Structure prediction request, 580 residues.
Amino acid sequence: MAQLELLRDQRCFGGSQRRYRHHSGQLNCSMLLGVFLPPAALAGERVPAVYWLSGLTCTDENASQKAGAQRRAAELGLALVMPDTSPRGPEVPSDPDGGWDFGHGAGFYVDATEAPWSHHYRMHSYVVQELPELLEAALPLSERRSLCGHSMGGHGALVAVLRHPGRYCAVSAFAPIAHPCACGWGQKAFGHLLGPDPSTWQAWDATALLRSGARAIGPDQTAPLPILVDQGLADPFLDDQLHPEALAEAAAAAGQPLQLRRQQGYDHSYFCIASFIADHLQHHARALRC
Amino acid sequence: MAQLELLRDQRCFGGSQRRYRHHSGQLNCSMLLGVFLPPAALAGERVPAVYWLSGLTCTDENASQKAGAQRRAAELGLALVMPDTSPRGPEVPSDPDGGWDFGHGAGFYVDATEAPWSHHYRMHSYVVQELPELLEAALPLSERRSLCGHSMGGHGALVAVLRHPGRYCAVSAFAPIAHPCACGWGQKAFGHLLGPDPSTWQAWDATALLRSGARAIGPDQTAPLPILVDQGLADPFLDDQLHPEALAEAAAAAGQPLQLRRQQGYDHSYFCIASFIADHLQHHARALRC
Prediction:
């Protein structure tokens, strides 16, 4: 079992905002990780965890510093798990063109199949398998989990839930890259990580997964989980990269409940996330704490 | 009249988080500035403003990104004004020793009297005079103002209120450098900015000001304003630099109401500020919106 090395522990809303380092077997490198434990966990309760997946260029620290999520998480008794957005380190290959939209800080939450990426870029299995095993053994976390994320991470959350029926209790997203097969960011990353054949990309695209029959199914294996999505209408990436309407149409056709809230005036930043994170945590808590 | 150049305008909790650039006549350089306007201001109301003074090494952006203050400010109808922590630019001298505790990012909110500092380091008059004149003319702000700040900025807020009876409606501080004449940070900065004679420092030290008869007096010129101070007990700077007990003793001897809340487990970071900022804004709103 990989060990968690505690680097920082800071009191926050009566809970504990921590930064850990650990070696990841999936990613074959050392990883940094943010975890918020609510007061209930410090008092001995095993609490459910919301996994937050950040977007392009982010680290394990953006959400803990900018989303303002700890306030409501403390009240609701939810832990927050905030991983980095890719494998890192000098041994990990990155964008050959030096871009910020692929490579370090931009792992897209898939399991790469192509060299040289497949040795490190396994962010999907890291988030879905390795982290819960590690954290539920080492910290006062229950086995009830949910996923939320932003942009690249919002999409990673949707894909993880759609690919693993029964594993998650809730899911939501801010401004997800909702149909990566159909946008520049997704095509560039998937072309590297999954190879040039777009047919292999479908299994890692939330809109394509919905079209092919996948559903967000909770632990009780009954009706699909409701998906909550917030999308700012002043988001500069909305037209070219995000395509929430494709996701919403696929969900409607599939009978998958999805609420797409179009937020007038909001952009792609953490100011938007901070404004609505309490709604998302409430959405998660309803399912996690029942 | 100096002009405000709008660099960014981002929707946040129904209000508007803005970044401006302007030329400061007091500081003789170009300055960046954060302003949050609550929904009431966007709807046409002139709203009161809380001036937030940040601490050592911070910029105009730390508080807007990390304090989580906009949520409660939006609810209470308060604007937030978040200036930078010093004059900046290649023409502005900084610490000759290259330290982070004096010079750029560390102006200590005084008006310097000594060369080469006095041409630029006039953060006190910038915050107390120039910014309110500029902003109340250009934005929907009323003339009701208050001051809050952190560390170096918490002390700057206390000094500004104590030096200007009648000008502010409320004041509070997080982990202020409460008696700079008696700590290394203050002695270094004041030695440069105000010269080697410590007797000249007294007029810029909140504890010394209270001892010499200054009081926090609101616009109605009656009883002293209550001062709210939060101090984390796990703050690594508490023993050597902050001296809140000296401030509290001076206030008690002076009949100046001051509530010093000692927060078990909290450190010097924005995780502490975020945890208690709503209490501070409530304290300000009671006085600002009456």
Remarks:
- The mean pLDDT of chain A is 97.
- Chain A touches chain B at residues 10-14, 17, 65-66, 68, 70-71, 232, 234, 263, 265-267, 269-272, 274-275 (CB under 8 Å).
- The longest strand of chain A covers residues 15-24.
- DSSP finds ten helices and nine strands in chain A.
